[in-house]
């Protein structure tokens, strides 16, 4: 079955309302300085200038939306490096605002498909991968568009170091069941849940995202999954 790694196209919107002047300036001036280079290896040395062999732990967020989770985590862990990918222009502008306001020196961004960056990272180079409220594509015939599918998960698995963590959050019941089924069939990830509260209550160090807040406001349930790469 095809999935995002073979489809290689973005289905969501890439632009919303026109950017305010300040946001447009962030895209023009700050984004080029923080962008993941278009070519070549991507590691802590090329991104953050770390000395060879002394690279910081790297975190990768797939589809960071408006960037509040990425910025919060980067602020919490200033010695770690954060890479986020998101094709939605307005979201990237919002994330750049967080980076500027928080004086975050440890964030790099890619405006586009997360898979393009993920596949260029060295194997076993990531400490954390985040996939929060991915587009649910609830219709069965669109299931192949879901990020939780063998192709993208194989990439996440290859890029996480053993012991690294994959965090997945969703407010969509179809996606929740789907993720439990797909992840449950994988030998390379261990589900870090001992009781229901481990996936019903937001774990510490997992700040709320915009989509999570919206789901809660609208009275929907949210599920939090943590998997350790074996
Ligand atoms: C429902 S939103 C959730 C945003 C954010 N994670 C949150 O929780 O608020 C899903 C996001 O995934 C992004 N997205 C979809 N496909 C993507 C891809 N291949 N690479 C990176 N981001 C992607 C969309 O643009 C959208 O912003």
Write the layout of secondary structure elements.
Blueprint (H helix, E strand, L loop, with lengths): L3 H4 L13 H14 L9 H5 L9 E5 L5 H9 L4 E5 L3 H13 L5 E4 L3 H5 L7 E7 L17 H10 E11 L2 H12 L4 E3 L5 H4 L9 H8 L5 E7 L1
Parallel strand pairs: 1-2, 1-4, 2-3, 4-5
Antiparallel strand pairs: 5-7, 6-7
Helix pairs in contact: 2-5
Notes on the protein architecture:
Helix 4 links the parallel strand 1 and strand 2. The protein starts with a helix and ends with a strand. The mean pLDDT is 96. The protein is 37% helix and 18% strand. Helix 2 (21-34) packs across helix 5 (89-101). The longest helix has 14 residues, at 21-34. By secondary structure, the chain is an alpha/beta fold. The protein has ten helices and seven strands. The chain has a seven-stranded mixed sheet with strand order 3-2-1-4-5-7-6, with helices on both faces. It is globular. S-adenosylmethionine (SAM) binds at residues 4, 10, 12, 62-65, 85-88, 91, 113-115, 132-135, 209-212.
